[in-house]
Amino acid sequence: MGDRTVIMTAQPGRIKKIIDVPFPHPRDLLQLSRRPSSARSSSTSGGCWRKRHQARARWKMRGFRPRPRSGCSISLRRCASALWQVLLMLGIGDRRFVPAPSDIACAIGVVMSGELARHTTITLYRVFMGFFIGSIPASSWGF
């Protein structure tokens, strides 16, 4: 176990805070975990973490994600998506295997409306009923 704890920033990596460990040598982990003072020292170092994690928790509760750091990656994704759409519209590629971005957008609407869940439930009901009805004569004939 070290004598100091160094807390660093994310990018670029710079030292944000240095905390001295207040426990004397030799250190016994079992004794330290039972001492109430160890909780106080971890809360001292946790102050820097707490702000960052509370901010992330607020974002997650609202359903947001942090923005990507570079605009280049977003524009690259948009260009790739547009190229993908144009190639499929020109007939290069098969939409059954690689659907176009516009097809995916329509499919998301089906999922959000609940229509996909309803159809999936009906299909599973038919599969299980067919299995059940087919297993009755099969078990009576000894198959």
Please, could you describe this protein's structure?
By secondary structure, this protein is mostly helical. It has three domains: 4-62, no CATH class; 68-93; 99-143. 64% of the residues lie in helices and 8% in strands. It has five helices and two strands, in the order E-E-H-H-H-H-H. The protein has helices at residues 29-34, 36-62, 71-89, 101-113, 115-141, and strands at 4-8, 15-20. Strands 1-2 form a two-stranded antiparallel sheet. A hairpin with a 6-residue loop joins strand 1 (4-8) and strand 2 (15-20). The protein is flat and about 75 Å long. It starts with a strand and ends with a helix.
Keywords, please?
143 residues, mainly alpha, two-stranded antiparallel sheet, 8% strand
Provide a brief overview of the structure:
With 143 residues, this protein is mainly alpha-helical. It is built from five helices and two strands; from the N terminus they run E-E-H-H-H-H-H. The chain is flat and about 75 Å long.
Give the overall shape: flat
Spatial strand sequence of the major β-sheet: 1-2
Order of helices and strands: EEHHHHH
Q: Could you state the oligomeric state of the chains shown?
A: single chain
Radius of gyration: 29 Å
Structural class, judged by helices and strands?
mainly alpha
Q: How far is the N terminus from the C terminus?
A: 66 Å
What is the beta-strand fraction? 5-15%
The largest pleated sheet is described as:
2 strands, antiparallel
Please count the beta strands (DSSP E, at least 2 residues each). 2
Low-confidence stretches: 38-43
Number of domains: 3
Helix content: 55-70%
